[in-house]
Amino acid sequence: MDMSKYVKMYVSESRDRLQRMDGLLLTLEQGGAERGAIDTLFREAHSIKGMSASMGYEELAKVSHRMEDFLEQYRGGKGTLERGGVDLLFEGVDMLRRAVEEIAAGSAPSLKSDEYLAKMAALILKAAPAAPAPAGAVAAEPAGRVSVPGRQQFAVDLRIAADAPLPSARAYITLRRVRDLGELIRSAPTVEQVQAGQFSGVLSMLVATAKSAAEVQAFLGSLPDVASVAVRPAGSEAPLDPRQAVPPPVRESSPAEPRPADPPVRPQPTLVQPAPSVPPPRPAAAPSASGAAAVSRRAVTMMRVDTRLLDDLMDQVGELMTANGSLVEVSQAIESPRLHESAGRVEGLVKALQQHAMKLRMMPLEMIADRFPRAVRDLARKHGKEVNFEVLGKETELDRAILEELPDPLLHILRNAIDHGIEPSEERVRKGKPPAGTIRLEASKERESVVIRVTDDGRGIDPAVLRRVALERGVVARDQIEAMPDADVMMLITLPGFSTAKEVTDVSGRGVGMDVVRGAVESLRGSLLIDSVVDRGTTFTLKLPLTLVVVAVLLVAIDEELYALPVSAVEQILEIRADEIQHAQGQDVIARDGALLPLVTLRHLLGAPAAPPTASRLVVVCEMRGRFIGLAVDRFVGYREAVVKPLDRALKGVRGFAGVTILGDGSTVLILDLNTL
User: Fold this and answer.
1) What does the pLDDT read at residue 3?
2) Nearest residue to 643 (alpha-carbon basis) of 379, 411, 296, 350
3) Mean pLDDT, to the nearest integer, of 281-291?
4) What is the DSSP secondary-structure string of 554-583?
5) Residues near 261 by Cβ (< 8 Å), separated by ≥ 6?
6) Prior bond to 264 cis, omega within 30?
7) Alpha-carbon gap, residue 29 to 80, rounded angstroms
8) How open is the CA angle 217-221-226, to the nearest 5 degrees?
9) What pLDDT digit, counting tens, does each position of 393-421 carry?
10) CA–CA dist 154, 341 (Å, integer)
11) pLDDT confidence band for 443 (50 / 70 / 90)
12) 3-class DSSP assignment, residue 390
């Protein structure tokens, strides 16, 4: 059977399950909800094992199988999972994740499981508690039968499969599972001998249980890696060696055919083969019409769709919006009420279609945020620091295209917070802080933007240190650095090669991390702000558009040329008199709400000739690099919903432009990016 068509589904499912396992292991490491987390971990490992085996990825199945075995001994509150066990489970998750990513890339997984299986087996045998000691009567009569009220006693001979990867570990787990039947009175070899590796392939046990012989056979036969089981009442003849036993032939019979009565002779041992791991499906009763309808409705509520289809859909919707704009433009020039009504109805339908297509592209921050707790945990342990990591606003939604670009810049910020920001526990205690530092990632929606803040309560950034380093490295001149406000000084750390680290580590110090962050954020038409207070902490703020495909814009004009300003950057529109313009610190400023805002002309930014003086100026109060400014324009044209098209290859590297849009009359308009203008 060709399984290649299921690879994408396998990769997607495995990624999701491994991500959940990371979160559960972090919960266990922090000592919370242990029993429920272990049970869920067990189910996730079991699912990955089954999927991997069905796809033919045997090494992945072995690793997840051994993780499942290890977790089995802690299910239902049986003991406490120690830190060493959590670390080994983390290692297994990492191994599986690397193999899954190789599969996603079209390569065969290079995973070799032998070393990991050996470490896991050693931990199983070392850490697991011995079987509970039998009652005092058992010790007094080791070879005889022990009377246990309400229970039968059975002698069981069980053989572990010869090809089992770790026979001793499997034998130990099997002995533990026997206790689910009742009481394990004794075994040969003993639990201690099995833990020491003294196991030759066969277990002989005396079991006291309220279950029947058939139930004991079915239970033990269903356990993994069990080759055969022989069960007989205790005290009967010598045990049948399962190595010499041959499973009886299976005879098919009608369900109504009566079973022959047992002959009145001494019961003989019955040999059963282990049940398959996935039982064959049983025919279900025919559902009622209403039941079938309910099942059908549930079956189609969710489905997996290739993201390329969603991108193609959005492209077509964008073209439809452009064509609709042309239709509206033409209809306005024709005196026809029916045409205007039809064009308006089409416009409403196109707008609704665009909104639904956009919803299909929106994804919650949770899709990437769940990977960060594991990264923070590993980095903190590597640096010997204690860190509490919090994520708020995981339900906040962004365009998938933006979300896919965020993990790297956010991870750079987290690395810097751990390496430079959070102090060692001893230093924090001396400063009167808790031993464990706190890093918080918080997302929220503000108007037409999403704001992501990463805050730590560490050392903070000292502007005086940044000024000194900038002068030493010749980044800026002395007169410039002295006149520069602290907010601008903070942004120096985003310059290529700029770093205050005294030594280079594999985490930071090369002066490339924050440069990457700023470049990534600006490529998404967003802005980066840094706010810090010495010994209180630092906040990195990423302000991003909700989507990169359709954006609300304000059309403005310089002479006859139209330009589009994203509405998310527009705060207010003003008309000011010429005498309201003041001059301070070498530039024009205007007063707004008791504060002075720099006044910049769009003509000057675009390199256009200066306009003659006028009695009044039209000004857009907008946000540029985290600060409000007044942007003077010639005239306002109006608001539009713009479909963003990428710049032509020849203009790809030009800063200050986020893309182009096409108006209803077919003219193209450049969309401004104020953060890079």
Assistant:
1) 65
2) 350
3) 42
4) EEEEETTEEEEEEGGGEEEEEEEEGGG-EE
5) none
6) no
7) 11
8) 140
9) 999 999 988 998 999 999 999 999 999 89
10) 86
11) very high
12) strand
- pLDDT surpasses 70 at 615: yes
- Alpha carbon separation from 389 to 346, 375, 411, 418, 442 (Å, rounded): 49, 10, 13, 11, 11
- The torsion angles phi and psi of 630, rounded to 5 degrees, stand at -100, 125
Place of tokens 């069981």: 156
Contacts by residues 348-355 (CB-CB < 8 Å, ≥ 24 positions apart): 350/317, 350/320, 350/321, 350/324, 351/641, 353/317, 353/320, 354/317, 354/320, 354/321, 354/550, 354/641
Q: % helix / strand / coil in the chain, to the nearest 5?
A: 40, 25, 35
CA distances from 345 to 321, 355, 654 (A): 13, 15, 39
Element holding 86 (H helix, E strand): helix 83-104
3-state secondary structure (DSSP) of residue 244:
coil
How far does CA 261 lie from the centroid of its chain?
Answer: 60
How far is Cα 217 from Cα 146, in angstroms, rounded to an integer? 21
| Of residues 286 and 362, more confidently modeled | 362
**Local structure of 276: helix, strand or coil:** coil
Question: Please, how many CA atoms are within 13 Å of residue 502, restricted to the half-sphere of its CB?
Answer: 1
- Strand, coil or helix: what is 362? strand
- Reduced to 3 states (helix: H, G, I; strand: E, B; else coil), residue 444 is strand
How far is 248 from 155, CA to CA, in rounded Å? 20
Query: What are the angstrom distances between the C-alpha of 428 and each of 86, 458, 503, 539?
Result: 27, 8, 22, 18
Banded pLDDT at 2 (limits 50, 70, 90): low
Q: Which helix (H) or strand (E) holds 92?
A: helix 83-104
26/326 Cα distance (integer angstroms): 55
